């Protein structure tokens, strides 16, 4: 398949998990991919994997909490490969489990700065370029916690609801200017973030599996496949959606 032949794609949080899987998938379909990631080692590993498979990729160390850094990432992408056709804004963090009364202001601020402002900063720079160059597609990472309550994770849940709000509003603002903006809302997925959340405890993982009617957790590539589809011309009439990929979690 070559849905992204001669196209350039940017992925934040591309050093592991869903971001890495999406980057690999984009590259396998012909895209030149720029990985924006705070951890240089992990980001470069993704680039190496793409290049070992015959693809084109570059790494740019990125802290999405710093607007100038994010702007420089987009500029680097355009300067290196000559454009920007699609972007997957995936960088994010989770909060420690605690009741709302016990969550700290520092945790709340971190969730909003990384998960919400990070997406906002990225969209601002991406949209600015896409407006000047005929459009494009953007996908943001929300969560099933963006469409339902999630006891014990109020700051994270609030941040992922906010990502959907940003997505839907920006999608409506730029729909007639050739830019499609959507989000994905994954269920529990086998990533480093999930390992951090569960502490590797098998009982916790079993419980999380039981919450999904499909009887298991998602694999990163299962989320990535939807991301890549949303950025492709195959999804040309999909706009302003939070696409739920949750093994039936929210169907209960």
Feature tags:
8 helices; 46% helix; alpha/beta; 7-stranded parallel sheet; Rossmann fold; 252 residues
Count of distinct strands: 7
Proportion of beta-strand residues? 15-25%
* H-E string: EHEHEHEHEHEHHHE
CATH level-3 fold name: Rossmann fold
Strand order of the largest sheet: 3-2-1-4-5-6-7
Catalogue the unreliable spans.
none
Helical fraction: 40-55%
Give a quick account of the main beta sheet: strands, pairing sense, barrel closure. 7 strands, parallel
Gross morphology: globular
CATH class (first level) name: Alpha Beta
So, the CATH homologous superfamily? NAD(P)-binding Rossmann-like Domain
Average pLDDT score:
95
In the CATH hierarchy, what is the architecture at level 2? 3-Layer(aba) Sandwich
Short description:
The chain is an alpha/beta fold and 252 residues long. It is 46% helix and 15% strand.
Description:
Helix 1 packs parallel to helix 2 (40-52). The protein has one domain: Rossmann fold (3-Layer(aba) Sandwich). The longest helix has 28 residues, at 105-132. With 252 residues, it is α/β, with parallel strands linked by helices. The protein has helices at 17-28, 40-52, 67-81, 105-132, 154-174, 192-198, 202-210, 220-231; strands at residues 8-12, 32-37, 56-61, 86-89, 136-141, 179-186, 242-245. It has a 7-stranded parallel beta sheet with strand order 3-2-1-4-5-6-7, sandwiched between helices.
């Amino acid at each position: 398949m070559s849905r992204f032949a001669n196209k350039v794609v940017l992925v934040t949080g591309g050093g592991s998990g869903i971001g890495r899987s999406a980057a690999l998938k984009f590259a396998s379909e012909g895209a030149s991919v720029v990985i924006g990631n705070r951890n240089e080692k992990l980001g470069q590993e993704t680039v190496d994997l793409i290049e070992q498979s015959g693809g084109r990729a570059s790494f740019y160390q990125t802290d999405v909490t710093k607007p100038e850094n994010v702007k420089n990432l987009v500029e680097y992408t355009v300067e290196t490969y000559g454009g920007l056709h699609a972007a997957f804004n995936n960088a994010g963090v989770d909060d420690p489990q605690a009741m709302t009364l016990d969550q700290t202001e520092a945790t709340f601020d971190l969730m909003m700065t990384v998960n919400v402002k990070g997406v906002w900063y990225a969209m601002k720079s991406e949209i600015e370029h896409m407006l000047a160059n005929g459009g494009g597609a953007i996908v943001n990472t929300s969560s099933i916690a963006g469409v339902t309550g999630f006891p014990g994770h109020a700051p994270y849940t609030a941040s992922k609801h906010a990502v959907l709000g940003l997505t839907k509003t920006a999608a409506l603002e730029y729909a007639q200017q050739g830019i499609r903006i959507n989000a994905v809302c994954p269920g529990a997925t086998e990533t480093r973030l999930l390992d951090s959340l569960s502490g590797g405890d098998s009982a916790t993982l079993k419980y999380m599996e039981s919450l999904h009617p499909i009887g298991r957790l998602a694999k990163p590539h299962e989320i990535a496949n939807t991301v890549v589809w949303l950025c492709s011309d195959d999804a040309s009439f999909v706009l302003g959606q939070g696409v739920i990929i949750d093994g039936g979690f929210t169907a209960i």
